[in-house]
Design brief:
2 helices, 5 strands, 17% helix
């Protein structure tokens, strides 16, 4: 399965709009996914697998509590064979310009396409 399809399959059931690479619409709460590919398992001058460095950006209104949705995103990614995510608040207070600007959270993980990835043990708690 392609990384874009895997991301859509994992995140769409959360009920938020999910957009690959870019979103410029009016929604206040949404997810944007992006990734970089690193070739792996080189043999005979060819790459036999791809490792994807995945970024899931979660945007939401300024006063909304993000924790429940962040946990749901992480659980969905791990259940879909992505590695245990790292979560970072990447808000830029300098850029804030009025009520329309909200929170931005970055969730980073990896995904492998090529049949050798066994996943990574990750305990997200009860």
């Amino acid at each position: 399965m392609s990384v874009d399809k895997a991301l859509q399959a994992a995140l769409k059931p959360l009920g938020l709009p999910v957009f690959p690479h870019k979103y410029t619409g009016p929604a206040l709460e949404y997810i944007v996914t992006s990734w970089n590919m690193v070739p792996e398992l080189h043999a005979g001058d060819l790459s036999r697998a791809a490792r994807y460095l995945v970024n899931v950006s979660y945007y939401l209104p300024d006063k909304q509590n993000p924790h429940e949705t962040l946990e749901a995103i992480c659980r969905a990614l791990v259940a879909a064979d992505f590695t245990c995510p790292e979560i970072m608040n990447v808000d830029d207070a300098e850029r804030r310009s009025g009520a329309a600007y909200g929170q931005h959270w970055a969730i980073e993980c990896e995904y492998c396409d090529g049949g050798y990835w066994d996943g990574e043990a990750c305990d997200l708690g009860p």
